[in-house]
Amino acid sequence: MAPYCLKSTVLKIAERGDYTWVNIEKQRDGSDELGFSFQLTTVDVGTDQDGENVTTCVLDKITPLQRSDAKSLNSKKQTLNERKFNTSLDQCLKSHGREVPLQDEKTATAVERSTLADHFVSTGTDTDKSSRKRAFTRGLKAAIDRQVVGSAKIDGVDMSWRLEK
Fold this sequence. Notes:
Elements: E1 9-16, E2 19-27, E3 34-47, E4 53-66, H1 69-74, H2 80-96, E5 98-101, E6 107-112, H3 113-122, H4 129-145, E7 149-154, E8 157-162
Antiparallel strand pairs: 1-2, 2-3, 3-4, 5-6, 6-8, 7-8
Helix pairs in contact: 2-3, 2-4
């Protein structure tokens, strides 16, 4: 099995005081709003044959970061993957959508997530089917994070629908 490789990702690493910050500057088909910070801590791992201490560094105080929740939710810029997800959702809602009950006696036209995923994966150009499945998951998550898609298990079936604006 080949190791997983991040394609088209640019990381920015900067030191600020005692912390090192890693931010995703650019990422194909993914959010560029994420990152993390950490401190390096020196740890003794023993002594060498001369009796001198042997040390190494470990990551400590790892903190996930998000530059701005509001910015990522309100950004009009969509990745190619998000646009493809939205197109698949619209097509599936037209051809396979059905009314489902929501909270507060509301209803929505929704599609089974498995049908949506199959459609998304079948329209992909990537030769690796597992890559297309991961792209679907990222597209769904981005749409939910932007609050344009609802998703829940209804009567035991995972369903997705457009949220009202």
